[in-house]
Amino acid sequence: MVSVALDENHSISHDILGKHTGASVLLKKAPEGTGIIAGGPARSVCELAGIQNIRTKSLGSSNKQNVVLATIDALSRLKSPEEVAKLRGKSVEEVLA
Fold first, then answer.
1. Three-state SS at 43
2. CA separation for the pair 25, 71 (Å, rounded)
3. What are the residues facing 72 on neighbouring strands?
4. Please, what's the b/e burial string for 66-79 (b: 16 or more CB within 10 A of its CB; e: otherwise)?
5. How distant is the alpha carbon of residue 32 from its chain centre?
6. Chain-wide mean pLDDT for the chain?
7. How many other CB atoms sit within 10 Å of the CB of residue 7?
């Protein structure tokens, strides 16, 4: 199981690239009302993770299993603003500015 840090718009907290073998998936933060703009394998993973607003782009291999694993890799490496602030020794407001 992977926990995903979502923002107030039910989107991811920052853009990220996930990789698995020959497949790469770019996940981009999206504003409220965008919906899930993704191909089949990445869309399913995002829906199951509870993400409501996101844009994705599959790069490289189109093998469905590898795209799913690349999407999971990206989601597992997401960090919330609170985690980044703690790592840098700054306040959340300084990180978001």
1. helix
2. 6
3. none
4. bbbbbbbbbbeebe
5. 15
6. 94
7. 14
Q: Please tell me the distance from the alpha carbon of residue 28 to that of residue 94, in angstroms, as a whole number.
A: 22
Which alpha helices (H) appear in the chain, and where do they start and end?
40-49, 64-76, 81-88, 92-96
Model pTM score: 0.91
Decide: 40 and 73 in contact? Cβ < 8 Å.
no
Tell me how long the chain is: 97
Q: Vertex 44, ends 40 and 47: CA angle to 5°?
A: 135
Amino acid residing at 34? T
Mean pLDDT of 49-74: 96
State the average pLDDT over residues 27-46. Answer: 96
